[in-house]
Write a structure and sequence with these properties.
The chain is α+β, with helices and mostly antiparallel strands. It contains five helices and eight strands. The strands form two sheets. Strands 4, 5, 6, 7 and 8 form a five-stranded antiparallel β-sheet that branches. Strands 1-2-3 form a three-stranded antiparallel β-sheet, with helices on one face. A hairpin with a 2-residue loop joins strand 1 and strand 2. Helix 1 crosses helix 2. The radius of gyration is 20 Å and the shape is elongated. It starts with 10 loop residues before the first helix and ends with a helix.
């Protein structure tokens, strides 16, 4: 073993570590939820072992990429390839819109700020901002460990995850939202 390959040369050890880390944020995740298009290997390239990713575009079109990274970066790459798919496997069942004071920057407005409860468990924040012709949204899954904290500490951690700003609610907005604590199980 060396620093680049802390878990050895079996690629499954890195996939397992990535999945363990995903389970911390997505406890409902199952390996069957991982994208089937991605596969991974550790191969010798020019006489040195390297991490390799393969993406199957279908119809015998497979893209191979040799990564010049260490084991931790490889684990992060695996997580990055799959987290959106795992999130999509857990549909929203209930929402709570947080009324936020008007936020505007450069013609863009905060359009939606909502907390969401998911079918397989867990909560996320959904934020959308835009102007009359463009927009963007972002979803933040809230780590389940945060819900073990008292309400005030939960808010501190939450605001680290979704920091207040032009297109995000601030602590005052969250504290004034009637029913939010109950929605989140407090």
């Amino acid at each position: 073993m060396n620093e680049k390959f802390p878990y050895g040369y079996d690629v499954n050890a890195y996939i397992d570590k990535a999945f363990e880390q995903m389970k911390e944020l997505y406890p409902w995740a199952k390996k069957t939820m991982l994208r089937k298009n991605w596969s991974y290997a550790i191969e010798q390239v020019d006489g040195e072992y390297q991490f390799v990713t393969y993406f199957d575009w279908g119809k015998n079109d497979i893209e191979r990429q040799v990564l010049n990274c260490d084991g931790e970066e490889f684990i992060e790459t695996i997580i990055d390839h799959h987290h959106d798919w795992i999130e999509d496997e857990n549909p929203v069942t209930e929402t709570f819109d947080v009324p936020a004071s008007c936020r505007c920057l450069g013609g863009w407005n905060l359009e939606t700020y909502r907390l969401q409860k998911h079918q397989l468990g867990g909560y996320s924040a959904f934020v959308q901002a835009g102007n009359r012709s463009a927009g963007a949204s972002r979803t933040f899954f809230i780590p389940p460990a945060n819900f073990k904290l008292p309400w005030e500490e939960f808010l501190d951690k939450y605001l680290e995850l979704v920091p207040p700003g032009f297109f995000y609610a601030d602590r005052d907005d969250l504290e004034k939202a009637k029913g939010l604590k109950e929605f989140l199980g407090y």
